[in-house]
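Re: that backbone. Tokens:
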């Protein structure tokens, strides 16, 4: 057997080829098995990219022919996609012998069906590195393409449905956080989707839901239950709200696990608004039905409208046809000083027909809305609203049988956009109120015949009187009192101020006449006269009289003798003065001195505060006892005040207490006079202010330290920024020198890096220069002197000449005043503001207008432009150091310019602010104090 093996070449060296052939057979079998099972096909090409092999399994679906591929390139076969440019790009990849993945093309089958293919390939190389061609795999992806196309069509139909529907679609994750909102959400609600995505429904406040309501809703979600028409009310800005109705269902994965919620929402604000307005009409009707009189009804109605519609206050103005004005008559408002002062200021307001919002509504009979009264030219009393922060206003007529008999005006401290629903609803409400007021007026007319009796019985007087429309007495009743008989004989045909009352000055009578001419009631007017040599005091109360048309006819009222009460008050006055002084001056101890300024009374508080017995100072003057730090001149000045019988406050001096410690006192006093007007001494209070003096000393020390620190910081800023410029010049100069001398030896990156260095040094230099300007505003400024505003503007424009010409800007101005200022800093201020307008402009060339207006003791200078504008949240931030709102690549600068402007304005005793609307331009305004002798130039 051994010899046979030798003859057949079966030695050890012959085993390797047989094993290699066996392994190769196994590999080929595996390859054929893979082809039978896969939907892919295998291919190979030669170095000229012609097919040399093409194998496909029986599962592959292909529009490629069964034969005829070998010897052809891929692009020589008929195709429908890609175009020639696509094949060219593919050939370039092959020529570069790069691998490729998922190259797609399409061919037609003999039946005319288009089939899509996706192939991937890699280059093959021989052992010596020579290129052999490509080999790779491919797949028929026609069905995949059809599925993707169907999915896109389905999504397009879904998006179309979502856009056309009144609803919008949403999805939440398993933590109930919103993960998707359809694009129609913002358009249909006016709300920002960014405020909701990634958050849960209860993360944002709802006006109609309590914590308990949200807890019930969360419990339902956690049970994975569907829900429908869950309503949420959200704030939408400018006094408006949005009502949203939400329906949702849980989503589960194929494994049954909970994945979150999806659903739809709808804006139901219009429906809810209709329900609210209907409820408001019912509330007004209930207020009118429950009221006993017109004033009570008006107050209740105004309150109901304010609380339902979130207005801060409401006022009713009654139409006075004879006078041609509408007058303030009734009100209701929320608590707060601003609203109360606004109401108080409205009491004396009357609007002529057609003047102001109220006058216009009276004239036209149509409701009016003002979203911001401070900017509305129709508003007459803008100062009244501005002083108390009133902005939004809504005014509508109160009508009876088509005639306006009054006007209701509602106001809020917020700006508020018009509400068309409310404007329609008040037509019904105004008619309801008008019918009620007319009915109440008719009932009042029926009771008029009883008015005299009611006045007599309710006011419980000694006498009853009446006056005509000129305030002359026409009736004076009552008997049994000597003063009544004496006054009655002389009063008829006279006014009260034509009679001999002694306690009323011309100013007092003017104030009383003003009340009468305003047709207001008054109470307990006290008058003094002498009757038969005796004192006589009378208290008078009165109310206006109007006829059935509302016209003023005079006054009626009562008078009573209060002489006994006034005499008793005078007797009590002296004993009460000591107590009033003590309580009014809020003292630690009380003291009195005689006419020689010697102490006669000292309360025990002095011993508690200083350890000094009151008996130790009785009979002495204040300067008889040694005081710490008081000179003879100090005491002389104090004695001069006392001898002039003048009151004094907070006279300070120090004494040593029983332990030898310095204690500071503050005393206040007032002179005393007897019933004959003679000086009787002083009384007053004293207080221990030792702790306050110590605190003041500490505060002064802190203030001095702070002032010194600020001065050092300003000096440091100046020195540091000044000294930094020299090394920067060195960096910039030597970098440029390197570029000129060795530029030809440097590659592109090196030259670019050197440009970066030069640019950075230049920007640092500009920053340092701006810092120098900023630090010098308070320390290197010139003395103020009269400066012509137009001369300052001309210098600023000349400095900006290149920027103005480059941007094609137009600069206009009002006549500018002469102002006492630092002219250099004023040039810098206008130059910075105009320069910003030239820099931050939109597509149109810049238009800049410099204006001037007087406001009280100030000039208000404005620089208005048509630029890109500023968002309101940045109005304060832009005046701080290094605050930039844009990248340096968009708009160059250091971020110090406006900080310099603010510091210049501060130094001149003014203030600076900005008014802007994004996309519509900005107006920078600053105030400068006016000086005498100013004139326009």
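Recovered sequence:
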């Amino acid at each position: 057997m051994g010899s046979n093996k030798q003859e057949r070449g079966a030695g050890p060296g012959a085993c390797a080829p047989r094993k290699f052939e066996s392994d190769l057979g196994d590999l080929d079998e595996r390859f054929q098995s893979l082809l039978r099972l896969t939907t892919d096909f295998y291919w190979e090409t030669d170095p000229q990219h012609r097919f040399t092999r093409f194998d496909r399994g029986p599962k592959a679906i292909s529009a490629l022919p069964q034969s005829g591929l070998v010897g052809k390139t891929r692009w020589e076969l008929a195709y429908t996609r890609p175009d020639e440019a696509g094949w060219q790009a593919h050939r370039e990849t092959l020529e570069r012998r790069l691998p490729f993945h998922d190259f797609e093309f399409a061919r037609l089958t003999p039946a005319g069906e288009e089939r899509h293919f996706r192939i991937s390939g890699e280059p093959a190389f021989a052992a010596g590195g020579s290129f052999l061609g490509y080999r790779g795999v491919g797949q028929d992806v026609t069905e995949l393409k059809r599925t993707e196309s169907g999915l896109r069509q389905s999504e397009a139909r879904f998006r179309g449905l979502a856009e056309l529907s009144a609803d919008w679609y949403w999805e939440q994750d398993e933590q109930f956080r919103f993960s998707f909102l359809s694009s129609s959400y913002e358009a249909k609600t006016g709300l920002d989707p960014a405020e909701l995505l990634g958050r849960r429904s209860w993360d944002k406040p709802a006006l109609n839901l309590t914590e308990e309501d949200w807890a019930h809703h969360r419990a339902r979600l956690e049970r994975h239950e569907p829900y429908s028409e869950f309503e949420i009310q959200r704030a939408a800005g400018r006094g408006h709200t949005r009502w949203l109705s939400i329906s949702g269902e849980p989503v589960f994965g194929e494994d049954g696990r909970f994945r979150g919620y999806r659903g739809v929402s709808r804006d139901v604000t219009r429906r809810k608004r209709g329900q609210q307005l209907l409820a408001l009409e019912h509330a007004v009707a209930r207020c009118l039905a429950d009221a006993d009189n017109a004033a009570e009804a008006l107050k209740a109605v105004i309150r109901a409208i304010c609380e339902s519609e979130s207005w801060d206050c409401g006022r009713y103005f009654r139409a006075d046809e004879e006078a041609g004005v509408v007058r303030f008559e009734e009100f209701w408002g929320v608590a707060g000083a601003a609203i109360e002062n606004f109401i108080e200021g409205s009491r004396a307001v009357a609007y002529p027909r057609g003047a102001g919002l109220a006058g216009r509504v009276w004239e036209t009979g149509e409701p009016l809305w003002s979203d911001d009264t401070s900017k509305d030219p129709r508003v007459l009393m803008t100062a009244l609203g501005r002083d108390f922060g009133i902005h939004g206003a809504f005014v509508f007529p109160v009508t009876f049988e088509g005639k306006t008999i009054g006007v209701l005006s509602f106001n809020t401290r917020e700006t508020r956009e018009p509400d068309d629903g409310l404007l329609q609803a008040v037509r019904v409400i105004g008619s309801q109120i008008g019918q009620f007021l007319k009915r109440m007026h008719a009932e009042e007319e029926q009771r008029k015949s009883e008015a005299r009796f009611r006045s007599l019985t309710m006011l419980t007087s000694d006498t009853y009187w009446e006056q005509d429309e000129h305030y002359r007495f026409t009736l004076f009743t009552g008997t049994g009192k000597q003063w009544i008989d004496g006054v009655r004989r002389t009063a008829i045909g006279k006014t009260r101020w034509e009679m001999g009352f002694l306690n009323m000055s011309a100013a007092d009578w003017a104030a009383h006449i003003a009340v009468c001419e305003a047709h207001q009631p008054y109470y307990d007017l006290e008058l003094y006269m002498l009757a038969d040599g005796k004192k006589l005091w009378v208290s008078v109360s009165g109310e206006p009289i109007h006829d059935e048309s509302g016209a003023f006819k005079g006054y009626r009222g009562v008078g009573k003798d209060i002489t006994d009460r006034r005499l008793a008050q005078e007797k009590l006055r002296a004993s009460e003065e000591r107590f009033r002084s003590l309580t009014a001056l809020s003292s630690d101890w009380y003291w009195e001195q005689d006419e020689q300024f010697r102490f006669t009374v000292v309360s025990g508080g002095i011993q508690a505060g200083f350890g000094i017995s009151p008996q130790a100072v009785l009979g002495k003057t204040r300067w008889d006892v040694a005081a710490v730090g008081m000179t003879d001149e100090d005491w002389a000045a104090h004695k001069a005040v006392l001898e002039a019988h003048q009151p004094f406050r907070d006279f300070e001096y120090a004494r040593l207490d029983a332990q030898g410690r310095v204690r500071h006192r503050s005393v206040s006093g007032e002179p005393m006079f007897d019933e004959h007007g003679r000086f009787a001494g002083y009384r007053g209070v004293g207080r221990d202010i030792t702790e306050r003096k110590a605190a003041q000393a500490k505060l002064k020390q802190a203030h001095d330290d702070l002032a010194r620190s600020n001065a050092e910081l300003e000096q440091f800023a100046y020195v540091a920024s000044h000294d930094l410029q020299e090394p920067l010049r060195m960096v910039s100069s030597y970098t440029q020198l390197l570029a000129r001398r060795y530029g030809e030896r440097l590659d592109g990156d090196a030259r670019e890096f050197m440009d970066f260095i030069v640019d950075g040094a230049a920007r640092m230099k500009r920053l340092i220069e701006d810092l120098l300007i900023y630090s010098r505003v308070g320390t290197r400024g010139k003395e103020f002197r009269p400066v012509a505003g137009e001369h300052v503007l001309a210098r600023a424009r000349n400095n900006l000449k290149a920027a103005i010409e480059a941007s094609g800007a137009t600069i206009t101005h009002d006549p500018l005043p002469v102002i006492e200022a630092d002219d250099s800093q004023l040039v810098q201020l206008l130059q910075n503001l105009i320069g910003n307008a030239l820099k931050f402009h939109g597509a149109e060339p810049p238009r800049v207008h410099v204006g001037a207006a007087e406001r009280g003791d100030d000039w208000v200078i404005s620089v208005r432009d048509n630029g890109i504008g500023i968002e309101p949240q940045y109005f304060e931030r832009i005046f701080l150091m290094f605050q930039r709102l844009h990248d340096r690549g968009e708009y160059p600068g250091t971020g110090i310019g406006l900080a310099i402007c603010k510091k210049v304005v501060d130094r001149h005793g003014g203030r600076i602010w900005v008014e802007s609307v994004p996309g519509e331009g900005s107006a920078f305004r600053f105030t400068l104090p006016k000086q005498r002798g100013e004139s326009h130039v």
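The first strand starts at residue 40 and ends at 45. Residues 1-11, 932-937 have pLDDT under 50 and may be disordered.
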